[in-house]
């Protein structure tokens, strides 16, 4: 029996040509695997058939939208995950899920290796292969573009020579990756970081400069998980889909940044994540109301580490699992409602409430009925500032004695 390799198949030029290219380079039959993570676009049955038409011996399509939302996006919301404080990990969050199904499909179809369409310059090659190594360490990972010199010009010639069902006339000048959490655009004129983005880049969001009436939305969380929109119960996937429409209509979630890639280079990327931006903004404000100060302070450090681990492809690492346990514990009381005003590219929180709130009106008010004992503040300040006071006295004495210049 001929050996097999399972290819993560997107339906585009590189992975379509990659089917035959892998067969020619390795002698292995190719099983194509496509995953629906809410990327929209083509019908997945069309994608499945295209893989067969391009030479795959089998073609598998997996609907993983709910799993993606429940097991990958929800942890990101709980972690307020933003790489470099801005990027909501649009592509990084989908890669461990795809890698999991790559490994599973390889085991089910008797394959000894898996493959992906990444180049040797990006982050995704690391994310796929590190995840596969953690799940199924005996599998071999291949990358036709990187390992077998499948350049774009060669791919176009190969597709034409083999009459592959790929329409090059409609090819975008950009490299685009998308899922239900958002959309990432790079290359083309964007490679010059001085060039401003143009409106044609965006599909998940409308131009925020166009005048339109604001939209008010209330998001309900239960232990950090979005469970209702405007009082109507939703699944995490439904919450993301609804907010992509309502927040996207106001141009919310657009991001233009130069990010530090794992492979050591800087890359200019344009992102849009209407739901991701809105949900994390709401979740952070609810945490302000329900998490005590020291836990909140420490969690912000954990959030940065969590985001970097996911960006770096270490979803299945021991440290990531340990941080998940900490984050989940912090979410025990993160339940309640957050009201937001969606308008002109911004999701602005205008109200928050929770039965688990740590906000005490009687302590916070400056009006009659204040229960805060202000007389205690003087002693607290003296003790709080005592180390600084003693250190300053020492510094002053040393300066007067001339022992310190």
TrEMBL record:
EC id: 6.3.4.5
Subcellular location, record wording: Cytoplasm
EC class: ligase
Positions annotated to bind L-aspartate: 119, 123-124
Reaction it catalyzes: L-citrulline + L-aspartate + ATP = 2-(N(omega)-L-arginino)succinate + AMP + diphosphate + H(+)
Pfam families documented for this protein: Arginosuc_syn_C, Arginosuc_synth
Location of the Arginosuccinate synthase-like N-terminal domain: 4-165
Arginosuccinate synthase C-terminal domain residues: 174-390
Flavoprotein recorded as keyword: no
Pathway membership: Amino-acid biosynthesis; L-arginine biosynthesis; L-arginine from L-ornithine and carbamoyl phosphate: step 2/3
Protein residues bound to ATP: 8-16, 117
Positions of transmembrane segments: none
GO biological processes: argininosuccinate metabolic process; L-arginine biosynthetic process; urea cycle
Alphabetical keyword list: Amino-acid biosynthesis, Arginine biosynthesis, ATP-binding, Cytoplasm, Ligase, Nucleotide-binding
GO MF assignments: argininosuccinate synthase activity; ATP binding
This protein's record includes keyword Methyltransferase: no
UniProt-annotated binding residues for L-citrulline: 87, 123, 127, 175, 259, 271
GO cellular component: cytoplasm
Oligomeric form and interacting partners: Homotetramer.
Family: Belongs to the argininosuccinate synthase family. Type 1 subfamily.
Protein name (record): Argininosuccinate synthase
Source organism of this protein record: Klugiella xanthotipulae
Gene designation: argG
